[in-house]
Design a protein that fits this description.
- The protein is an alpha/beta fold.
- Helix content is 35%, strand content 17%.
- Strands 3-2-1-4-5-7-6 form a seven-stranded mixed β-sheet, sandwiched between helices.
């Protein structure tokens, strides 16, 4: 972000006094509480799906958990599709986080190949906040790691609707097990309806699929709720069940209660 070439006059346009602005900026620069809940859950549970789709990814913290596992050969051969409303979020937050996740997991001998002179900046104990420069070695090493682990990345920006257009952009085959992730994606009735329509369409085109959604039970002032989400799922032929998980935050932290919802087709 610091080395932006100036081609985009305001890459940080979303960083202001508002968490989101409808149809302009949808909150992708902020790591929301529920995404941490979802990441905690994924750390404790194995996922074997060949295709991971995170809708409204932003910083993509849940996907980073699965991405790190795939890089280590745990569930390798995965395809990741990450979507966010704002292209700048994908460019300035999502992709850098993927790269940081890779660099942070390098072994000592691997670090020497990528950082032959300076050493891995993320492993320097004397520096609390180090700079990572995108040298040809870093970019090449990242691409090599993706190739070795047979990982493919698809990044999409824009609205989920119209859903048929989005589906054309997301690679898939009927036999490709699909695991869909979403955090704080049901905050308003309009967002909720578009999200449910999208996940339903994605699940219907493969033989095996499920969606895991982390959300606050009620979004005061904007109208979204878990009850509304579950009702919308039923209307579209899905069953949405709450997942038991002790790692959830919310009331114990002095805030609105949060939960995880698993969605499958009937």
């Amino acid at each position: 972000m610091a080395e932006d070439d100036g081609s985009n006059p305001n890459p940080l346009s979303g960083l202001d006094d508002s968490d989101l602005r409808a149809n302009v900026y949808e909150g992708g620069y902020k790591t929301w509480e529920c995404s941490i809940d979802l990441a905690r859950y994924l750390l404790d549970h194995s996922v074997d799906a060949g295709h991971v789709v995170e809708l409204g990814c932003g910083s993509a913290v849940p996907s980073l958990v699965l991405f790190r596992s795939a890089l280590k050969g745990k569930g390798g051969g995965r395809r990741f599709t990450l979507t966010d409303y704002n292209a700048d979020v994908l460019r300035c937050v999502t992709v850098p986080n993927l790269l940081l996740a890779w660099v942070g997991g390098l072994k000592e001998d691997e670090s020497k190949e990528v950082f032959p002179e300076s050493g891995n900046p993320l492993l320097r104990k004397e520096e609390e906040n180090g700079d990572l420069y995108l040298t040809p070695e870093v970019i090449g090493g990242f691409q090599k790691a993706l190739s070795s682990a047979v990982i493919s990345l698809t990044l999409l920006s824009g609205s989920w609707s119209p859903v048929p257009i989005l589906l054309d952009l997301i690679p898939s085959t009927p036999e490709l097990d699909t695991f869909i992730l979403g955090s704080e994606t049901i905050y308003s009735p309009a967002s909720l309806e578009a999200f449910v329509e999208t996940i339903t369409a994605l699940m219907k085109r493969v033989e095996t699929a499920k969606t895991l959604v982390a959300a606050k039970r009620v979004y005061f002032g904007v109208g979204g709720s878990v009850d509304g989400f579950r009702a919308a799922c039923v209307e579209r032929g899905c069953v949405a069940n709450e997942v038991e998980f002790e790692g959830l935050g919310g009331e114990s932290e002095g805030g609105v209660r949060r939960c995880l919802i698993e969605v499958r087709l009937f």
